[in-house]
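To illustrate the input format used throughout this study, we show a single complete record. The first block contains the structure-token representation of the backbone; no residue identities are included at this stage. The design step must infer an amino acid for every position from geometry alone.
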């Protein structure tokens, strides 16, 4: 189904796990796509693989935290394809977890780098793309946020704070540019693992996530890519300003559910031995 036929998409972080699957899904839906990423070699591999399948794509390296770099990639996209209908702000600060933990230990340089990638980058991309979209009659921006922006966790303070800013930006940009035909939504993925790379995650951690997901498996890049295609298309034409969790339902229930399932399996019930019903929470 070519639901994006005639549309032009610009995708950041296109060399990464979710980004490379997203550009494929956008192409399969009929879009022409400009791929961009900081890393030249893997970006070129993704571009070449798409071209080998007959898709119309181009690639250019850019640092989304740098305004001149952002301006250049937006200008190149317009020169090459004539318009921009879809912006997928997918690039994120995924490589800092070891240095991005608690506030008392926070290295300010790490904070600056991580929040620049997760918040300043999407802001700059949107700043330069929105005027092109408005001139072309509208468009759809999809910001890739994170479940960590919606709840507390033991790691990734700066990462989560940057994604929280991205959620706020999503609602503000949707508010300002809705009347001009630009919809803006965010996706908050849960734990996403590339097929074949499940072993990279320690098994106890994978098992913990699966036990807490209502769809009992880890997320895959295609889960996010398909949602991007939906939000980019007219099928989502009345959805804007939303942060949509694509996480197997991990945030949709009480933290007690997984251990409670185990207690039930062991024969524990809500009724105490004295015969009174216990509080479910
Ligand atoms: N994988 C997950 O479990 C998960 C969960 C929640 C959210 N996310 C988000 O999904 C998005 C994609 O993540 P992924 O899992 O594919 O990670 P990934 O590391 O495979 O891809 C991220 C890409 O962003 C690029 N990038 C980083 N800094 C950049 C910069 N300054 N300029 C341009 N490109 C830059 C990297 O080179 C990389 O290719 C990210 O925004 C991430 O925060 C991922």
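Output of the design step:
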């Amino acid at each position: 189904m070519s639901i994006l036929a005639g549309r032009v998409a610009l995708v950041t972080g296109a060399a990464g796990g979710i980004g490379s699957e997203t550009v494929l899904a956008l192409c399969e839906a009929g879009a022409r796509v400009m791929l961009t990423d900081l890393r030249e070699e893997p970006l070129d591999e993704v571009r070449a693989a798409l071209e080998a399948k007959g898709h119309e794509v181009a690639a250019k390296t850019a640092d989304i935290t740098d305004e001149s770099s952002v301006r250049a990639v937006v200008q190149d996209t317009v020169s090459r394809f004539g318009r921009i209908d879809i912006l997928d702000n997918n690039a994120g600060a995924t490589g800092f977890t070891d240095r991005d933990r608690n506030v008392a230990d926070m290295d300010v340089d790490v904070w600056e780098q991580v929040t620049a990638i997760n918040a300043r980058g999407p802001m700059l991309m949107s700043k330069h793309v929105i005027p092109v979209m408005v001139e072309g009659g509208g468009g759809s921006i999809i910001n890739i946020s994170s479940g960590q922006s919606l709840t507390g966790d033991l790691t990734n303070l700066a990462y989560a704070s940057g994604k929280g800013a991205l959620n706020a930006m999503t609602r503000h940009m949707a508010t300002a540019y809705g009347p001009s035909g630009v919809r803006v939504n965010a996706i908050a993925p849960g734990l996403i693992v590339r097929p074949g790379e499940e072993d990279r995650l320690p098994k106890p951690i994978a098992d913990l996530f699966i036990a807490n997901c209502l769809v009992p498996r880890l997320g895959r890049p295609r889960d996010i890519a398909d949602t991007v295609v939906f939000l980019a298309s007219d099928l989502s034409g009345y959805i804007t300003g939303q942060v949509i969790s694509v996480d197997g339902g991990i945030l949709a229930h009480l933290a007690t559910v997984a251990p409670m399932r185990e207690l039930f399996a062991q024969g524990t019930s809500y009724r105490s031995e004295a015969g009174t019903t216990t509080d479910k929470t």
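Structural context for interpreting the output: Residues 59 and 251 are 36 Å apart (CA to CA). Helices lie at 17-28, 40-52, 67-81, 108-135, 157-177, 203-212, 221-232, 257-265.
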